[in-house]
Structures are given as structure tokens and as C-alpha cells.
Amino acid sequence: MSDYLVIVESPAKAKTIERYLGKKYKVKASMGHVRDLPKSQTGVDVENNYKPKYITIRGKGDVLKELRTAAKKAKKIYLAADPDREGEAIAWHLAHSLNIDEDSKCRVVFNEITKDAIKESFKHPRSIDKDLVDAQQARRILDRLVGYNISPLLWKKVKKGLSAGRVQSVAVKMIIDREKEIENFKPEEYWSIESQFQKGKDEFDGNFYGLNGEKLELGTEEDVNKVLEKLHGEDFEVKKVNKRERKRNPALPFITSSLQQEAARKLNFRAKKTMMIAQQLYEGIDLGKKSGGITGLITYMRTDSTRISETAKQEAREFITGKYGKDYLGGQKTKKKEGAQDAHEAIRPTSVMREPKTLKDVLSRDQLRLYRLIWERFMASQMAPAIMDTMTVHLINNDVEFRANGSKIKFKGFMKVYVEGSDDNKKENDKLLPDLAEGMTVKAKQITPNQHFTQPPPRYTEARLVRTLEELGIGRPSTYAPTLDTIQRRGYVTIDNKRFIPTELGTVVLELVEEFFPEIIDADFTAKMEGDLDAIEEGKTEWITIIDDFYQGFEKRLETAEKEMEKVEIRDEPAGITCENCGHEMVYKMGRYGKFLACSNFPDCRNTKPILKEIGVKCPKCKEGNVVERKSKKRRTFYGCDRFPECDFVSWDKPVSRPCPKCDALLVEKKRKKETQVECTNCEYKENPQT
């Protein structure tokens, strides 16, 4: 018989914690929530102060039975769910299901699953924080009132299976608004003039700046010709040289949103995948007996705080001093961001002494890549700024001014470990200009005018959308990944080339929600609601008041929508081909994994086919079929013969239409970071890479 029972959410977490606590403790998993609102009804009594009706989740009966049996044998029960609103709510539901006094010191929280953190947390148990529970309960009830009232309307007026949530509707609106911006964008012409200058044996590049010391924008070719006509010969005088030292500070350690963004940029991870792997690293990885067994490798991964504990800072300082020297010591000062809950530390390794290279044999490839990203970002945040020597040269020819810029890393500082990624893929300029002084003369070897056109704003990637939602104060760390997943599963958006594109269905649903429930898609309203939930958590307001303020107006709009919302028919788009089984026309349908072909004679004919995209290459194996682009179950692109299963040719690399000039075998495009290289599949033949 164990003296103490500890309940956590997952078996992996239970296994890690039980090893630290010893024989007197039995640790069991609740497998997440054990109670929730019923799926078959709204489950909120609006006539009785919005009282929620909680029931045991289907399939959790056996789990609860096992927990109750263990609880009867224990002297004391501790609830150790995750340290956030969701975790507090799980603990509260468990307390009710197991008849535990929620005012007793039954709640234990920790930010990292390490031996010291676990043992310290059990020295300071507390009662369940009802304000945290109320904030989570308010969010759940709000989302239920919105979803379970608007969704049936959409089912009746548009099609079954649709939903409209608070945060997801705003996200869809942002994607649709961006698409409208792109469609309505009118490109504007502009020009630039580049020049290659020479001083002795040294060559460097410069760009046109202006006339008579004033910056001049070049809108047309005529503007360019006027500038070129003013030039007298190829000699330019060095009019001014500015040299200065510039510091570049490291990025702050990761919070949930910045981790999702950087993992998308550097690792090509979707937000959902990033959070799944981070959860594994947090809950514990078996490092082997010699290295401590099952150990949590990172701190809690749902956080909006960049705060770091003094213990972690000190450990980082010792590591940096030992490996790089005292000159590399630094560290960004963190301050609480407006609107942040600041409940936990930033995401960091539980011990910087566990360098990524030492975990290569115990982590999967993706686990190692994400851990390395977190480790390097944290280490860099505690290091000194990089120091750059920068130089700007003003070059004059008959009042025509060109400018040349150069920089050189003087001291790498944090850049020795890590450099933050960019959505724009900008490369760090690391080219110093030759030693130039005022009064010198340089020659313009080549002057090249270039025509440009302004570009529309880019479509949202997952990283850009998460960043924008965070900047607007919409959603919280735990909501970003589920929101992006939901809008894709519902068919409101698709992803092409890693960017969101709205579907016709998404546009129709948004227009209906916008007409009858404008507050649901209003970014400011949604952000204010997040602030109200924070106020509930802080004990500044009652959750019933917040729900009631919202529902009074919402209920009236719901009545209006029931009467006035017209039925919308979304017709299937003809595919221009007939069904080989029954002769009816095939149409495009939207499924969970995007568009596919289906027979219009459904349900009498259930013929479906994937949409195959030809790439203009004959099958190298059977010589009869054509190579087409396909998608694997994990949505990864590969290439195969359109005669499958008669021909089983497949390739992860894109085949090229011409054969190898050396051996006549198949050529394919190999993607290496930001370059594409054509290589032979049979011999060593390679072509110069294309960026």
C-alpha cells in the first residue's frame, strides 16, 4: 500500500515523476480531462447563471474506477496536472470526481520535470486555485455557447459538419482579408540603379541614393535616364565615409508562439507537430541508467513569459564561461509583456549541461532538432551581444550620389551559438568595404538600371499567422496550434506552398458570421475577451458577469439569424471528366486532406480519385505512364507513375524530363536547404545548384 497517490495527465509524465518520488508514492495518469460538457447538447443552463452540466467523458469510466480504487488505499492524494488554466481545471474535475476537498492542500505544480523541481514542489502543496479554474471554465462555456448555437445554423443553411468558434473565426477572417488584399493589389513600377565600383584591385557594390544630397525615388525609366545623363565619366569621388560599431542583441528565450514560429522557419514543423514533440521533451525521455533514466529535458512549453530563474541563469553563466570564456557572458534583460499571464518561465532546457550532441543516441531525429533549437536559443539569450563594424561610403559624380554599405562581424558573441531566423530569409551582410577615405577617387566599372514592381503582401504561413494573432492579443499559448488545425480540418482554408489559402466554403461561412454575429470575427472584441478571461484568473471580476455581458447581445442576434439567414448552396465544381464506373460527371470535393475527385452520382456511385498533377515527365520505369505529383498520408509530396498499381515507380525527389548526359539514367531535383541541385540517380553527375 502506497502512502501517497499522485495524479498527472499522461502515462509518460507519471513514469518520470514516480521514479523521483520513491516507493511511498504511487503515480497514476488521468489521461487528460475526466469530465466535460456533453457532446450531444450545449450543456450550459443559461437560465440558471450559466451553470455548466459536467458529465464523465465517454471512455473514462475505467480510468476513474482505477483512480477511485487507488484513492481509497492512499493516506493523501496530490493532483499534479500541468501548471496552467487547463491543468488547474483538470485538477478541479478530479477533486470533484474523487471527493477530494478542493480547499485542502492537494495541488502540486512544477515548471520542469526534474528531480529537484519535483521534490521542492511537494514541499509546498496548495489548494486548487478557483480563479484559474473559473477563467478556464469561462473560456469553455463561452466557446460552447458560440459553437453550439452558431454551428447548427450553419449546418441548416450551408452544410453539415461546420463550426464557428471565437478564435478560429478571427483567424479565417485574417486569411480571407489577406487574400482580398492580394486580389485587389495593383503593382507599381519603380527602378533602382546598381553599380560595381573598383579601387585598385578591390571591387565593391553600391546603389543610387539621390541628387544634391537629397534622396530620390525612381518611379519610371525616364527618371533613370535623367540620372544617367547627369553622370560625367566613370570617376566617383569619395565624399564621406561613416564608420561605426554596432551591437546586435540576442533574441529572448522562447515562449510558445516564438517556438512555433522558429520551428516553422528552421525545421519546417507545423505548430501541431512542434507542440507534440515539445510535450514529449517536457514529460521525459529515457536517457539510460547512467544518465539518470527518464528525465524531462525542457521546461513547460505553454508559456507567454520570457522570465528565467536565477538558478538557470547561473548554470548558463558557468557553462558559457567554461566553454567560450568570460567575454561571451551577457544576457538579455526580460520584462513582462503587456497582456502576458507570466505564470511560468520561458521555454528552456532543464539543464544546459545536456548539450544536444550528447543526446543524439536517445532522441529521435525530430526530438533532437527541436531540443537543439531550444537549447541554442536559451544559451544565446544569456550571451553577450555581437559587435559589427559597419561602414557607409557616399560616392559623388556631378551631384549624383551612390552609397555603398558594408559590415563585418568584429565579435560573434551570441552568434557563435545561434542566430534567429527570418520570414524573409534575409542573410546577414558580412562583407567589409575596402579601406576608403574622403577625397579618394573610385571607378564605376558597370552601372545597371533595374526595373521592379511592388509586390502584394504575402499569404500567411503558420508562423506569420501565429505571430499576428499574438500581436493582436488573440488566443493564448495553448490555443494557437488547435486553432490552426481546426480551420484546416473544417475545410475553411487549404495550404499551398506552406501558405494559407481560403476556400469557397470558408468565405461563405465567414460572410454569414460577419453579417449576423459581427463581434465573433472582430479582432478587438476577441482580444478584449482574452483580457476579461485574464481578469477572472486574477480574481478581479466574476466569470458569470463576463458570460452574461456577452450572451445578452449574442442571444438577440441568434434569434435574428434564425429568422433571416438564407440557405446557401455550395455547388460542386465540375472536373471536366466522366466517371469510368457509371458515366456520370466527376466533381471536385473538399475532404479532410484537401480536394479530391468524386462521382456526382453519389451515393449510387462511390467512385473517388485523388487529383493528380502531371509534371511533364514520362515514367522512367514502364515508359508508358506519366509521372504525377502525389501526397503521402503525412501530406509529404512524392512522385509516382499514374499507372499505379500496374507500375510501382516512386521517388521522393522530383524527376527531370531530360536524361543524364553521362549515363542516360534518370535526373532528379535534390533540395538542399535553400538550393535545388539536379543530380543523376545512377552516376556522380551533378549540375550547378539554383537558388
Tell me what the structure shows:
The chain has five domains: 4-128, Rossmann fold, CATH 3.40.50.140; 138-184 and 458-564, Orthogonal Bundle (Topoisomerase I, domain 2); 189-249 and 389-453, Topoisomerase I, domain 3; 256-381, Topoisomerase I, domain 4, CATH 1.10.290.10; 571-611, no CATH class. The termini are far apart. The chain is 33% helix and 24% strand. Strands 8-9-15-14-11-16 form a six-stranded antiparallel barrel. The chain has a four-stranded antiparallel β-sheet with strand order 19-20-21-22, with no helix packed on it. The chain has 16 helices and 29 strands. The chain is α+β, with helices and mostly antiparallel strands and 691 residues long.
List the topology elements.
Elements: E1 4-8, H1 11-21, E2 25-29, E3 35-36, E4 44-45, E5 51-52, E6 55-56, H2 61-73, E7 76-79, H3 85-97, H4 115-121, H5 130-157, H6 166-184, E8 189-199, E9 202-211, E10 214-215, H7 221-230, E11 235-248, H8 256-267, H9 271-283, E12 285-286, E13 294-295, H10 310-323, H11 365-381, E14 386-397, E15 400-411, E16 441-453, H12 462-471, H13 480-489, E17 493-496, E18 499-502, H14 504-516, H15 523-537, H16 543-564, E19 573-578, E20 585-591, E21 594-599, E22 608-609, E23 613-618, E24 626-631, E25 637-641, E26 650-651, E27 654-659, E28 666-672, E29 675-680
Parallel strand pairs: 1-2, 1-7
Antiparallel strand pairs: 3-6, 4-5, 8-9, 8-16, 9-10, 9-15, 11-14, 11-16, 12-13, 14-15, 17-18, 19-20, 20-21, 21-22, 23-24, 24-25, 25-26, 27-28, 28-29
Helix pairs in contact: 3-5, 5-15, 5-16, 6-13, 6-14, 8-11, 8-12, 9-11
